Amino acid sequence: MSSTQGSSHLGTTSPRRRTGHRLAASALASLLVAAGLVAGASPAYAAPSDLCAQVGYSAGWRGEALEFAVAIALAESSCNPGASNRQGNVDAEGSTDRGLWQINDFYHPDVSNACAYDAQCNANEAFRISSGGTNWQPWSTYNRGHHWRHMDEARAAVARLGHPGGPGPAPLVHPVESGRVVSARSADGRLEVFAAGADGVHHAWQTDANRGWSAWENLGGPGGAELAIAANADGRLEMFAINGSTFQHRYQTAPSGGWSGWESFGGGGRDIAAGANADGRIEVFASGPAGIFHRYQMASNGGWSEWEPTGGGPALGRIEMEKAPDGRLEVFAVNGDIFQHQYQTAVNGGWSSWEDFGGGGHDLTVDHNADGRIEVFASGPVGVFHKYQTGPAGWSQWEPAGGPADSQLTSDRTPDGRVEVFAINGTTAVQAWQTGVNAPYSPWTEFGGGGTEITATTNADGRIEVFGTSGAGVFHKWQTGFATWSEWAWVSNTAGPAVN
């Protein structure tokens, strides 16, 4: 992020450094790595990154954790299994870093040259040494941030898995969290943020990917609205806003480009959620006093169906959407009395009946593990509870997670695939995170003062950025590293709209 951000705070917390989920500092001596590209033979793959994706998958990394591992290998060796390097090894002068993930022969004599220069064996050892991808601190390219420049190439390689030489399937596009403040990346990687004030919807955007912000602009539209945002198949973002009497939408006229004016999208309601089918068609769900209705694009980037009832759902419920590993959308909705769930019965297909998912609550957030299993958090008068998939169709029981009562919730994922959860109410903001990939969660820790709404998103380089709102305006806080955070600041040094 740009160093020119403002200094006004949502709370009084200072930047927090987490160390609980990392390995001890002595683990740094287990591996010495190279910084920079090295020479060697080229593998017979469509791209060198395809080799890293394949052996990384076989070693055990999955999802975003696999993308992160491939990016580090690209920074280490250009995904060249024959790569070797002796430069810069000041702690063990004359030692050699070897293979895809550059395993050092002095600190790891147990890894033979035959293994180190074998692509799969090197990946297996890197998976072991990095504790399954939960500790990348020993890699100097990680510490220096060199892997960030390779993330797009790594994601493309993971998407090509099982399709050597071809484009492979498109990566799953997971829905963006809805609420009174929402944020998503344009096709060029720049974050766009929308906040709902009493006088309409306000908008700001990054002027470059991963850095500086524009000033806020007032777009008009429904006042005091709930918002949702989703990407069309061609990359154009589409934004939806609803209040008790009005439902409108607007959309980018070109990928990463300007926006249309407001257009009617239906009558008023309580809340909305939007997400894309596996074929790119956007689906929108809205709640009202008669339950939940939905509307969907008839073709990718195309026109819309009429509103259709979903067969029930919680009246005036809060709604969030997620995507199963096979591309089916799943919808979760809660009001003060009931919590229900429905899902597509086939990819791009019809929907199940609503199923009971628990008792009532105040708010919810839904995310996915590195292995694709869905995680659900819900808040209520006694704190936050947690429920997660145990397999393709099974769910755990609700488990108490502590946290602030009647809080607004949001979540997103770190580059190594761990879910981080944020909660805010009128007096406090807190955070918890998975202690490892697909693992249990840390205790809650302080994240700032109280507020009215919160949403988390990720920058193009993988760093999480959190937006929080209050009657004073819109603030944000962003990761400055794998486990460090900036202080709360106004977006572009201006408060933006009050969100009460």
TrEMBL record:
It comes from the Bacteria. Residues 53-141 form the Transglycosylase SLT domain. Pfam families: DUF8189, SLT_3. The keyword Signal applies. Keywords: Signal. CDD domains: PLL_lectin. Residues 275-493 form the PLL-like beta propeller domain. SUPFAM superfamilies: Fucose-specific lectin (SSF89372), Lysozyme-like (SSF53955). Residues 1-46 form the signal peptide. Transmembrane segments: none annotated. The keyword Cell inner membrane does not apply. This is Transglycosylase SLT domain-containing protein. It comes from Streptomyces virginiae. The lineage of its organism: Bacteria, Bacillati, Actinomycetota, Actinomycetes, Kitasatosporales.
